[in-house]
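step 4 of 6: structure.
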Amino acid sequence: MNASRSIIFSLVAVGILVCLPLIGVAAGMTSFFGVIVPYLAVALFFIGVVARVVRWARSPVPFRIPTTCGQQKSFNWIKPDKLDNPWDNKGVVLRMILEVLLFRSLFRNSRMEFYEGPKIRYASAKWLWLGAIVFHYSFLVVLLRHLRFFSEPVSSLVHLLEGVDGFLEVGAPRLYISGLALLAGVAFLFLRRVTIPQLKYISLPSDYFPLFLIFAIAATGVLMRYIYKVDIVSVKELTMGLATFHPVVPEGIGSLFYIHLFLVSVLFAYFPFSKLVHMAGVFLSPTRNLPNNSRMVRHINPWNYPVKVHTYEEYEDEFREKMIEAGLPVEKKE
Amino acid sequence: MAQVPKADELAKVSHRPPETPWTETPVEFRPGTFCYGAKPKNLEVVGLPNPREWNPADEDWKLPDNWKDITLNGMKDRLDKFRSFKLFMDICVRCGACADKCHYYIGSGDPKNMPVLRAELIRSVYRKYFTGSGKIFSKYAGARALTERVLKEWFYYYYQCTECRRCSVFCPYGIDTAEVTMMARELLNELGCGIDWIAGPVANCYMNGNHLGIQPHAFKDMIEFFVDEIEEVTGVRVEPTFNRKGAEVLFITPSGDVFADPGTYTLMGYMMLFHEIGLDYTWSTYASEGGNFGLFTSHEMMKRLNAKMYAEAKRLGVKWILGGECGHMWRVINQYMDTMNGPADFLEVPKSPITGTVFENAKSTKMVHIAEFTADLIRHGKIKLDPSRNDNKIVTFHDSCNTSRAMGIFEEPRYILKHVCNHFYDMPEGTIREKTFCCGSGSGLNTDEYMEMRMRGGLPRANAVRYVHEKHGVNMLACICAIDRAVLPPLMNYWVPGVDVTGLHELVGNALVMTGEKKRTTDLRYEPLPGMEDEEDDDV
């Protein structure tokens, strides 16, 4: 499938997802979109992610195959690289923390420049890393800020986060950086996908779809907060109802809210069945989460089985005469 | 055999993807870019399926009727056995960080050589048969059916990956294309669709103990030939032993060192060093191969070939094993051997009889890398070195893929280099250590019919060598891998004429001052030592 078809397909899919609650709410299906869908989505998310992790975990790690990115531990006079070539669990934990929280491998990224000659150079390329950091962390902040809708009283940590996020102190309601950063992050990830020819070539509909979906979620959120305001008191009533398992559906919340909520539900439900599970998968990656110590400690393969080998005896049987003639020691003389 | 285009022609690489989507761009089996198919006699020796005469460029591959079931069952089996495989099928986000990290992509511009697309070749099939979304949404979920065209694509591109793992360094999830390629090659081998350059050495190694199929008496002869050579250069007669019970150490190195220049000079270096320090060691004709082309066939074949090392160590009753300079051999030893064929409880924790150093990092496998062993000797001042004998060599060091990214032996060889030669310059950061570039011919792709792709894949490595060649006058590329020693000379001739290739222990052999040696006038290649050019003439 070529790029434009992939993009159109994903756009249409998100467009349909926007229309569904619009039509549904107009038809009076507020409890379906306000209660049933979110519950289903969250259930699918948790069951789906757990099932996915269990599915991965059921396959063993037969061999110790870390990608070593630094000096091994050998002599006490050669400094080993604890982080990039860990030999114990402590090093692995550090390596994983940096990988998961700071995207360390992505930080290594470089860009190949191919000139006539040929001459090849490798330039620094941190934009993908920066874009990824902005995208993931702003998403996290946005998500945590939303705890305000699911707790009463609102935790002081959420207040603190809101204070930091809105430190510019402009606008009413106060402008949150994270919302804009999320939109910018998604836009960046999309733009590089369509402007870098190689990336465009490898992209699938399932690469565009989550970007459009998240963009639509962030956009409806921003619209609700700053422009087409919805009845925030009723919204909180609904969300608290969900959180306390006493669902209520107040009258008169704008349909923009239902669109937002539905898209978020779709994202939750889609998550375990898509590439988005990389969030869980990165923890299980055998090239990162194992120490490079298989010469020090024997790694066990649970399905190790005996194999057919060509034994020394068979070998000597074939070559005995030649070996004796050449003065090579043999087990049997004749 | 296809003619390789001239370097300036090959250098014109376009990295712009074609107009047609990759799923609709069929493979073209162009001579010079693929390897010959596995011959039936080699498959029969080790009992691999579907032995027959076939040619990858032919329309009809003579596949078994149920080839699709074999392949899909094989995939299921491996998904259940390897978490790596299952995970790497699921979590790629196609961020593209790996794309321009592959030497074959850099040198060919073929988008299916981007690691992400290489993996998508099999991932698309995985989605079709093993995921709900792929079954329902088909190509909208990036899924596609397994057809003969797909299988041919697998063959073409999974034998255009050298399992070098460079992409996995840059992947934010550590997705390792080598792992994916290994699975794909296992599946291809279940249909008899491997390449002969791998199947041949596997069969030879299985029956005769080494890749070339050298028989025991011939192996002894070949080594003894180099005993004479060493005497010629140094005046010292070394005395190797073979299959000797009760030796302290079993020494195993790739057989390439025994029969092909410049590996043979490295072999001479080993023997001179062992003689000088009085190491109680033995060669084995049965375990006469360090390399393991099973790694490039299947996990099972890797285990079947590797088994000889421990079996022979046990039979001979040695205390521990010393391993020579080799790349993929050390991937097998570091990451697979103990798990597959251990525990080596009949051996002792390796201890250098010369320095008393206990190699704690090898306390379970009981196998030590020669660079570790020699670095320890130098550190303790146990050998006398005259680095000026290498003064006419301006040296740089090629980190081999496997010892770098599946082990991390970076400092030991550099420490040795700095003691055996006076002119050493590293290539630019980003092309060495964990980011080192493949020679372009690893993982069993070092065959002549594949020369065009070898030159393409080796271009990034050659490019970095040319940088130090022009900047520092580097004329010698040192390495610790037998495949490197075999394939880097033609690569250098092609892209960077004027740079020669050497093993680390050849330089050690040159610099080593031996007890009772005559006045050395030449190096191990019979080329005059610096300042001895005239005396050399007198000798001749």
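step 5 of 6: annotate
 - The domain at 387-539 of chain B is CATH 3.40.50 (Rossmann fold).
 - Chain B touches chain A through 119 residues (CB under 8 Å).
step 6 of 6: archive
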